[in-house]
Specification:
Largest sheet of chain A: 2 strands, antiparallel
Number of strands of chain B: 0
Number of domains of chain A: 1
CATH superfamily of chain A: Cytochrome c oxidase-like, subunit I domain
Strand content of chain B: under 5%
CATH class of chain B: Mainly Alpha
Distance between the termini of chain B: 65 Å
Strand order of the largest sheet of chain A: 1-2
Helix content of chain B: over 70%
Number of strands of chain A: 2
Strand content of chain A: under 5%
Number of helices of chain B: 6
Helix content of chain A: 55-70%
Radius of gyration of chain B: 20 Å
CATH topology of chain A: Cytochrome C Oxidase, Chain A
Distance between the termini of chain A: 32 Å
Oligomer: heterodimer
Shape of chain B: elongated
CATH architecture of chain A: Up-down Bundle
Number of domains of chain B: 1
CATH class of chain A: Mainly Alpha
Radius of gyration of chain A: 25 Å
Largest sheet of chain B: none
CATH architecture of chain B: Up-down Bundle
Structural class of chain A: mainly alpha
Order of helices and strands of chain A: HHHHHHHHHHHHHHHHHEEHH
Chain lengths: 628, 200
């Protein structure tokens, strides 16, 4: 708000920022940064803090359910807990963690010095932060959202949910959507346009491919949820009838729109992780990825098909046998490209020179857990079977198997793999192993009992259950498991702290890597590449280090043989980096103000938010884009 | 600060040969198409489902809306003229069309404001029935998009009057043009589906 009343001081601060950022030190250089690596770090750290919040919510849920007739939290608080847990883990943890990896890795892997739109990139991060904060600010305004992460109408309609929680939820998600979309536009342009010479599409690392597929999913799926959320808010704030059965509206419209977004969203969460796995497995098997084109095309196939399976979330709503059968078939079909990937990963490991370091442990853990998640998913695709499983703990177990056993394990694989690149130090090996085994144990202890509970008929979203249902032991076991998971996360945090201080020096290429990010120092200089590399093959960096020997075994190239011949040398001083900027942050600051104005129907606040946003946009546009 | 081009935003040679900003605009328009697609789908789903009036036939004034639609479509012509003039470096013409286009846009918006007022007088509100809900939200979002376009074009016109837009950065006019044409095309779909096909 100070930004509107004191534009002069902003300009002064801007000058200061430019001086500070030029030295790459100090808090202002982070706030005004447009460096993709720093933005990636900001994304990662913020997402991890939200992971802790979402994790504590999960622990409270498990404490409440540990015993029958639990009294840890009230039913009202319980509803808020599971809503915030789901919303946080999906929108504030897994998506931004993937965005952290997009930021950190993609420019390095395609041989670029930054993303296509560095300021837009900063805007994505700040908007993500604002969306997350707005969502959590609901606690101060009379209670967190309590309608589930799926926000089914009419439960979320005003007459049935008159607090402000749902409004915060809808507006928060809307802002997070803006952030994701801005990031996705940026990464599509970056990947298509900023590739180094010779980096043809089919020489790109699979992680870059999966980023591209994810970004397309985001820009085509997010607008649908945006419309649904607008409709919900028009209903709630201005008395529209979108989901109001009294005036002929159908609540099923919400479910359709939500899941047309929601199922691609599942792949938005998992495709980046599949990309990470496809980088980790070859490196630690010392083999190229088996069937690269199959992995790429199956990823693209998953992205396309993900728009045609949404109604498998809605079998029990009475769509009729033909629709159910059609969506059943499409859901079974989408398992095919997923299976293709699994077999390619296994074949990559097969016969490889395997070194079982923590990144590979998490990657293999991902494959095992994700297969269970995928197969339980196939059981949902069968309509009669799904009728039994709908709204039971079996579903809860299934999607945690995919999103925790899958996505989170894969993200940890990525953290262990790339941590040395950006800190210059390896994460501790012993603590890493302890983290992995504790997490694997805790994970299975938590979620396998839920499979059984679900098949025994325990419904989702109940805040407690009576004695004598035969659910007691399994629930207690799941609660114990969740605390083992918490312990494993503490081990990870200790590992990060210890390793940042005293970790083993990594050097540029600690894992004998295959892709371009390992060809530059750790941590990378601000300009990434002293000279833009010229790419001659898939896994280019590997081919600079090794040639194929007689039996197909890699033989090291004589030291120095393949270096210094790539691209043009440039002096460090002549590499021009984008200037830091305040305006992305200012634009982002305006968004929650604007949203709060609507939530409280305070149109002065709406106007203030609009002024801040416009100030940011015009400042951004008028800031010398070309300083000359 | 040294006077050097920004690294990324002025990169002339890209891997695909497409300008970064133009590619960004096309991607943005793709997502906008899904956005309006969802709104239009909602309108069509609820078409004829209102339990009480006023119904579309009670309020529509097709000749009036045809005129305002024609004005909006003509603004696409003037927009194209502005883009062409910018690329040829004909600054005077470019300024003219950069002013005429948003003025036509404002005329369209004035027509929409009049129409909304008329409908409201005839008893159609956001809450009165499904038609009111879906009609106001769909055309309202379109109107909001036209308003943003007007703001962009007036800003460009102001920049052009200050001599800051020329052949070297004609891409700015072109990007605004892409957006403007898109918003017009959406109106063609809305006008056809909502107004013209209403009696069917």
């Amino acid at each position: 708000m100070a930004t509107i009343s004191q534009p002069v001081s902003v300009l002064e601060a801007l000058r200061r920022v430019r001086q500070e950022a030029a030295t790459y030190r100090g808090i202002w250089s982070w706030i005004a940064t447009v460096d993709h690596k720093r933005i990636g770090v900001l994304y990662g750290v913020t997402a991890f803090l939200f992971l802790l919040a979402g994790g504590i919510e999960a622990l409270l849920i498990r404490l409440q359910l540990a015993t029958p007739n639990g009294k840890v939290v009230s039913p009202e608080v319980y509803n808020q807990l599971f809503t915030m847990h789901g919303t946080t883990m999906i929108f504030l943890v897994v998506m931004p963690m993937a965005a952290a990896f997009f930021n950190l890795i993609v420019p390095l892997q395609i041989g670029a010095r930054d993303v296509a739109f560095p300021r837009l990139n900063a805007f994505s991060y700040w908007t993500f932060l604002m969306g997350g904060l707005l969502l959590h600010a609901s606690v101060l305004a009379g209670g967190a959202p309590n309608g589930g992460w799926f926000g089914y109408a009419p439960l979320t309609e005003f007459p049935y949910n008159p607090g402000h929680g749902i409004d915060f939820w809808a507006m928060g998600l809307q802002i997070l959507g803006v952030s994701s979309m801005a990031g996705a536009f940026n990464f599509i342009v970056t990947i298509l346009n900023m590739r180094a010479p010779g980096m043809s599409l089919f020489r790109m690392p699979v992680f870059v491919w999966m980023t591209l597929a994810t970004a397309f999913l985001i820009i085509l799926a997010m607008p649908v949820i945006a419309v649904a959320l607008f409709q919900l808010e028009f209903d709630r704030l201005f008395g529209a009838n979108f989901f109001n059965p009294v005036k002929g509206g159908t609540p099923l419209l919400w479910q359709h729109l939500f899941w047309i977004f929601g199922h691609p969203e599942v792949y938005i969460l998992i495709l980046p992780v599949m990309g990470i796995i496809s980088e980790v497995l070859p490196t630690f098997s010392q083999k190229p990825l088996f069937g690269y084109p199959f992995v790429v095309f199956s990823g693209i196939a998953i992205a396309f098909m993900s728009f045609g399976v949404w109604a498998h979330h809605m079998y029990t709503t009475g769509l009729g046998p033909i629709a159910n059968a059609a969506f059943g078939v499409s859901t079974i079909l989408i398992a095919v490209p997923t299976g293709v990937k699994i077999f390619n990963w296994l074949a990559t490991l097969w016969g490889g020179n395997i070194s079982l370091r923590p990144p590979l442990m998490f990657a293999v853990g991902f494959i095992a857990m994700f297969v269970i998640g995928g197969l339980t998913g196939v059981t949902h695709s069968m309509v009669p079977s799904d009728y039994q499983q709908q709204d039971t703990y079996y579903v809860v177990a299934h999607f945690h198997q995919v999103l925790f056993g899958g996505a989170l394990f894969g993200l940890f694989a990525g953290i262990y793999y790339w941590f040395p690149k950006f800190t210059g130090r390896l994460l501790n090996e012993k603590l890493g192993q302890l983290h992995f085994w504790l997490m694997l144990l805790g994970f299975n202890l938590t979620f396998q009992p839920m499979m059984i509970l679900g098949l025994m008929g325990m419904p989702r979203r109940i805040y407690t259950y009576p004695q004598g249902m035969g659910w007691d032991e399994w629930n207690l076991l799941a609660t114990i498991g969740s605390f083992v998971i918490a312990l494993s996360v503490l081990v990870f945090m200790a590992n990060v702290v210890v390793s940042l201080r005293r970790g083993e020096e990594a050097g540029a290429d600690p894992w004998d890597g295959r892709t371009l990010e390992w060809s530059i120092p750790s941590p990378p200089p601000p300009y990434n590449f002293r000279h833009i590399p010229v790419v001659r093959a898939r896994d280019d960096f590997w081919h600079r280090k090794y040639v194929e020997g007689p039996e197909g075994r890699p033989v090291p190239v004589v030291a120095g043989g393949a270096h210094d011949e790539h691209g043009q040398q440039e002096d460090e001083e002549h590499i021009h980096l984008p200037s830091p900027s305040y305006f992305p942050l200012i634009c982002s600051l305006g968004l929650p103000i604007f949203a709060l104005g609507f939530i409280f129907k305070d149109y002065a606040l709406v106007a203030a938010g609009a002024v801040v946003i416009l100030y940011g946009i015009y400042g951004w546009a008028l800031e010398p884009a070309t300083e000359g | 600060m040294t006077h050097q081009p920004r690294l990324a935003e002025t990169t002339l040679e890209t891997a695909t040969g497409l300008d970064n900003r133009k590619l960004l605009m096309w991607l943005f328009l793709a997502s906008e198409a899904v956005f309006f697609g969802s709104l239009i789908a909602t309108y069509l789903l609820y078409r004829g489902q209102s339990l009480q009036g006023p119904y579309p036939g009670d309020v529509f004034n097709i000749p009036f809306t045809s005129v305002s639609s024609f004005i909006l479509l003509m603004s696409s012509t003037t927009m194209a003229l502005a883009v062409g003039a910018a690329h040829r470096g004909q600054l005077h013409q470019m300024r003219t069309w950069l002013l005429v286009t948003p003025l036509l846009g404002i005329s369209f918006l004035a027509g929409q404001a009049f129409e909304f007022t008329e409908f409201y007088r005839k008893g159609l509100t956001l809450s009165s029935n499904l038609f009111g809900t879906t009609f106001y939200v769909l055309t309202g979002f379109h109107g909001a998009h036209v308003s943003v376009g007007v703001l962009i074009l007036l800003s460009l016109w102001a920049a052009a009057m200050l001599g800051k837009i020329g052949r070297h950065n004609a891409i700015n006019v072109e990007l605004a043009g892409l957006y403007w044409h898109f918003v017009d095309i959406v109106w063609i779909v809305i006008f056809t589906l909502v107004y013209l096909l209403e009696p069917l």
